[in-house]
Design brief:
The protein has a single domain (3-373), classed as Thiol Ester Dehydrase, Chain A (Roll), CATH 3.10.129. 41% of the residues are buried. The protein has helices spanning 13-20, 40-49, 55-58, 60-64, 165-170, 176-179, 188-199, 230-240, 248-257, 280-285, 295-310, and strands at residues 96-106, 117-130, 134-146, 152-163, 219-225, 263-264, 270-271, 315-323, 333-345, 348-359, 364-373. The longest helix has 16 residues, at 295-310. The model has no long low-confidence stretch (mean pLDDT 93). By secondary structure, it is an alpha+beta fold.
């Protein structure tokens, strides 16, 4: 690829070495989070943004009768409380960043009106050779979350892959077949299958799922997400807040401070790279098959799958998510899970779950899983 054919900066040894110097250094200058507190509205907006209507998050009267006596936030709400955990990466200016996974641990519930404070640092940089974009760098951050009493609510490692946009567009092979296909159109029968899955989605709710009643090999109900639409991506961004979504003067201030964020759109106006999620033309420019879902959104779908299953008296202790491909507009996702282990540790009754999600063509989209603490009939 000649210099004249390049539209974007590339990863260089020099810029990577500069970024490595930041490993382990506490991050003190970053963007303000979308949510400082877990207010009733903030919790509801986030839950609805991932398609989760669990009354434990959204109905104060219902939640008052449940285990914690008040509304609590869905575990993945913490994505709205820190930009770094959600993919706001530093260094390598102009090089694309795709959120690709996280390993979460939760220690306490986040209750209505709790404050959220964070500490973050760059943990590691790992180089990869990929089908999507050739040379890529996995940029891993560690973030800790505290409430107003300085109690540790949760902690997580999350990572983005930094990729060469020009290489992904011109030479990447991962989506070569998909890019040549016409947009998919669904039949009424195909859509009816999805609507039926939604209609039968079970929220365990107030009926306890006891540790003794779960066996290794048990399957979780299949959960549907999609078909993917830009409207759905925007619904998530409304609750989560986005990384670079700004308007008017605030957009100008952001781009004026960070020149690499101002990529000209079809009108020649500098606009944010986040528009890969609603602008197919720009998504194609970075090598993606079309406008696609957010990574933290997909991680939240996996945790939603587990919280539906565990019920109000369960507590999600751990979760992992590893993105395997983009979900462009029009894709469907079916999330499955099974119990892989059960044990008692320190008086906690724990269930291990493995998850996968495939699209409408059976292609693997994401793998994950978690550990759920359940109530026990014996209480010991």
């Amino acid at each position: 690829m000649t210099a004249s054919e390049r539209h974007f900066p590339k990863i260089t040894d020099e810029t990577l070495a500069d970024l490595r110097r930041r490993i382990g250094v506490p991050i003190t200058d970053t963007l303000e989070p979308w949510c400082h507190e877990a207010t009733r509205d903030n919790i509801r907006h986030y839950a609805h943004g991932i398609g989760d209507d669990n009354p434990l998050w959204c109905d104060p009267d219902y939640a008052a009768r449940a285990r914690f006596g008040t509304l609590v936030a869905p575990p993945s709400f913490l994505f709205a409380c820190d930009r770094i955990i959600s993919g706001y990466v530093g260094g390598l200016p102009g090089v694309h960043a795709m959120w690709a996974g996280a390993d979460w641990t939760w220690h306490l519930p986040l209750k209505r009106n709790d404050e959220v404070h964070t500490e973050a640092s760059l943990k590691d940089l790992v180089e990869h050779q990929t089908r999507f974009a050739g040379r890529a760098v996995q940029q891993i951050y560690h973030v800790r979350f505290f409430n107003q009493r300085r109690e540790v609510v949760a902690e997580a490692d999350s990572w983005c892959f930094r990729t060469d946009r020009d290489y992904a567009r011109e030479e990447g092979t991962k989506y070569a077949d998909l890019k040549s296909k016409s947009p998919r159109r669904y039949t009424e029968a195909e859509l009816e299958k999805v609507w039926s899955t939604y209609a039968n989605e079970e929220v365990r709710g107030a009926t306890p799922r006891y540790f003794e009643d779960v066996s290794v090999g048990d399957a979780l109900p299949t959960m549907a997400k999609g078909p993917m639409t830009v409207t759905g991506f925007i619904a998530f961004a409304q609750g989560w807040g986005g990384l670079y979504i700004r308007a008017n003067k605030l957009a100008w201030k952001m781009i004026h401070r960070h020149k690499g964020l101002g990529i000209p759109n079809r009108f020649g106006i500098p606009d944010c790279p986040e528009r890969v999620h609603w602008e197919p033309e720009f998504a194609h420019m970075v090598g993606a098959p079309g406008a696609y879902d957010y990574g933290p959104e997909r991680c939240s779908w996996l945790t939603h799958h587990m919280t539906n299953w565990m019920g109000d008296d369960g507590f999600l202790r751990r979760a992992s998510c590893k993105i395997r491909r983009h979900n462009p507009e029009g894709d469907l996702l079916f999330i499955t899970g099974k119990v892989t282990g059960k044990r008692v540790e320190g008086g906690h009754h724990l269930i291990d779950i493995a998850q996968e999600a495939h699209n409408q063509d059976g292609e693997l989209s994401v793998i994950g899983g978690g550990t759920v603490e359940l109530p026990a009939r014996t209480g010991t």
